[in-house]
């Protein structure tokens, strides 16, 4: 070999085996140190430019919302990742073949009903759905479970009943509309979805007790690092929107029936409130109609910024750009229909 690369190889051949690659590692360490120094300098310069232009109260609000979203979601994300890893490592694929019907069309509503028994938020449902797909569950059924679990589980329904005392129709409306949206989304993906649009998460094969424990650890490590990053991105986006949208814009639109429904649907996406807590926010929006608040409760657990980021990270951007608009349109349409029946 000739040139600089050949010289480096020749130099390494003259060194003991323990010294091979040390020069290469030192060079990469130098590059990393230079990159870190450049980033630190950019942050210092950016702070000196941005600090006079940012209101302290707005910055405090942004930080509060960002931390609140992360703290709210992280326990459920860890729970979902642990459950997904346990499904991958310890539950044989044959179990799902016995629980779910063989026909994907029939498996979709069954998977939706399974969401009613698993406490958790939308952050937990994404890795669990990925684990189900990795164990051979039809993607349409796993996606139905992904949408139903954070919206109709017992904790969410009890929280809704507490937030709306004396109004059982809000609990029933939320349950019916959310389950219907989940099933319709699953059937639609079954009919129109293509395999190349969805990236099914891969999982290591487990052999024996030691192999299962190792597979559990690997899946936990991979998913928590992968999902945690996208959670931070989604929380930062939600905090930015919450701090930037003036509150008077929200109040002025409450009087228009159509605008109020669309506004609360969009706010549910942007605010990214955990499904266990969103009922109390909806109850506080007393200036809005029942239909608009029901839309807020149905859309939020199925389409929000952190959930979009998690779906794109787990299943690919091609999936997210198709499944998110589908879910949003179905959630708004079904909520308006059910809300009209309740009014």
Automatic annotation (TrEMBL):
Keyword vocabulary terms for this entry: Cell membrane, Membrane, Transmembrane, Transmembrane helix
Name the UniProt record assigns to this protein: Uncharacterized membrane protein YraQ (UPF0718 family)
Q: Where are the transmembrane segments?
A: 32-50, 62-93, 140-165, 171-192, 224-245, 257-282, 294-314, 320-342
A cellular component term from Gene Ontology for this protein is: plasma membrane
Q: Which Pfam families match?
A: ArsP_1
Keyword hit for Transmembrane helix: yes
Q: What is the lineage of its organism?
A: Bacteria, Bacillati, Actinomycetota, Actinomycetes, Streptosporangiales
Listed InterPro entries: DUF318, UPF0718
Q: Which domain of life is it from?
A: Bacteria
Please report which protein family the annotation says this sequence is part of. Belongs to the UPF0718 family.
């Amino acid at each position: 070999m000739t040139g600089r690369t050949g010289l480096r190889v020749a130099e390494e051949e003259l060194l003991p085996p323990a010294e091979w690659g040390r020069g290469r590692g030192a060079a990469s360490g130098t590059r990393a140190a230079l990159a870190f120094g450049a980033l630190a300098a950019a942050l210092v310069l950016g702070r000196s430019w941005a600090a006079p232009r940012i209101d302290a109260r707005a910055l405090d609000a942004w930080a509060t919302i960002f931390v609140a979203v992360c703290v709210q979601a992280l326990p459920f994300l860890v729970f979902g990742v642990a459950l997904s890893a346990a499904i991958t490592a310890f539950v044989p694929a044959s179990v799902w073949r016995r629980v779910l019907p063989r026909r994907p069309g029939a498996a979709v509503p069954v998977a939706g009903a399974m969401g009613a028994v698993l406490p958790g938020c939308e952050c937990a449902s994404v890795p669990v759905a990925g684990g189900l797909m990795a164990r051979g569950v039809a993607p349409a059924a796993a996606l139905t479970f992904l949408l139903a679990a954070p919206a109709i589980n017992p904790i969410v329904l009890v929280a809704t009943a507490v937030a709306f005392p004396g109004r059982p129709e809000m609990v029933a409306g939320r349950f019916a509309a959310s389950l219907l949206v989940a099933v319709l989304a699953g059937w639609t993906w079954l009919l129109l979805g293509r395999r190349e649009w969805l990236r099914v998460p891969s999982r290591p094969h487990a052999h024996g007790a030691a192999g299962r424990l190792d597979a559990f650890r690997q899946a936990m490590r991979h998913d928590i690092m992968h999902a945690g990053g996208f959670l931070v991105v989604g929380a930062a986006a939600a905090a930015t929107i919450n701090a930037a949208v003036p509150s008077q814009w929200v109040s002025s639109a409450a009087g228009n029936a159509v605008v109020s429904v669309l506004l609360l649907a969009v706010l549910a996406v942007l605010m990214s409130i955990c499904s266990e807590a969103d009922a109390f926010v909806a109850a506080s929006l007393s200036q809005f109609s029942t239909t608009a608040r029901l839309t807020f409760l149905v859309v939020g657990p199925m389409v929000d910024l952190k959930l979009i980021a998690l779906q794109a990270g787990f299943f690919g951007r091609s999936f997210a750009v198709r499944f998110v608009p589908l879910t949003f349109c179905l959630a708004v349409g079904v909520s308006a229909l059910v809300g009209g029946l309740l009014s």
